[in-house]
Write a sequence for this structure.
């Protein structure tokens, strides 16, 4: 699965299921954190956070946000008290645009 596909699927997962903080998946609501949504996009399992590709995609989001600590900073960013689901979705979408461009695909052809 291409990086752009993972990032777009993760954004859709949060749109559809909701957002969570401090946990990969909220078992009561089905909402997922940034890492859980990326893991879900890759493996259909939001708790498969150890998937190596998930760390790469978290790094993509961190880069778009200007965070230098990679996946760990992206997870901390997701968990900030003030963080809104719309911001997490926007970060995933922005990272997907960068990935599409790197894949040689015009974002407007896909989005």
């Amino acid at each position: 699965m291409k990086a752009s596909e993972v990032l777009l699927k993760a954004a859709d997962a949060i749109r559809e299921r909701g957002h969570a903080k401090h946990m990969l998946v909220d078992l009561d609501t089905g909402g997922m954190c940034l890492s859980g949504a990326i893991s879900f996009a890759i493996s259909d399992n939001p708790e498969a956070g150890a998937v190596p590709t998930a760390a790469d995609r978290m790094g993509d989001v961190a880069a778009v946000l200007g965070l230098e600590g990679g996946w760990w900073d992206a997870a901390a960013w997701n968990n900030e008290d003030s963080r809104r689901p719309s911001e997490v979705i926007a970060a995933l979408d922005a990272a997907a645009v960068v990935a599409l461009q790197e894949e040689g695909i015009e974002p407007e052809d896909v989005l």
Summary: The chain has one domain: 3-105.
